[in-house]
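User: Here's a chain of 273 residues. Predict its fold as tokens.
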Amino acid sequence: MNTRVLAARKYLKVFDIGLQNTFVYRWNFFIRSIFSVVPLVGTVAIWGAMFQTRGAGIAGYEYSSMVFYFLLTMLVDSLVTPTEDEWQIAADIREGQISALITKPINYLHYRLCLFGSYRLLYTAVTIVPIALIFFYFRAYVTLPRDPRTWALFPVSLAMAALIQFFIAYSLAMLAFWILEISTVVFLLYSFEYFLSGHIFPLDIMPASIQTALKWLPFTYEMFFPVSVFMEKTRGAALWSGLAIQAGWLLATWGIARLMWSRGVRHYQAVGG
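Assistant: Prediction complete.
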């Protein structure tokens, strides 16, 4: 049988195992999606008060478009953000379970990527109904894209955002080869990521000089950029250059993930004999 077919079957089996393992927590997914509306309601209320006090738009956003922005961030976050992947990988390394995987004919990065994909697929399947209900409740603020190209480019940007986030989480977890506890490093990086990726506010309301600096950081392309693509706030040359930079960060984080693994395994084998 063709080697590629065997490899595909092997990773499809890993994907299936990931689905079975995570399906145990389907009610946890559902409850989490229900409670995700709480910060959304709070955010909408805060921005509503700001717009009412100001009596005008903010950096090109009206109240309706601001609500739609945060609806989309909730959706994108549920679709692409890794959940505990770095902790699971670090636990594999710290507890020695990685030894069994190193000796098997399997690429650990591909193995974890399959598990990540299965987790996101199941999470989306379980939470899609509550999220759809939330969108329906706020339907007056929803504006669908008019350009057909947006419908084609948004999934591409979304997929790259998911992979960038996964490779960053994977690379962070690789630090467990050298340090016992990675929580401090993870907390520090994710604090910056949460602030600079557009979770708290749209990045394009910031001063132009700061926007220019953020344009070259990966955080922009984890959340804000896909949302701005769907809202059609990023168009023309800015859209294509943004996709190019996002693709560049995808390749860079993939390369860093592979480098961290190869260096970490050599260190692990040297220490463990």
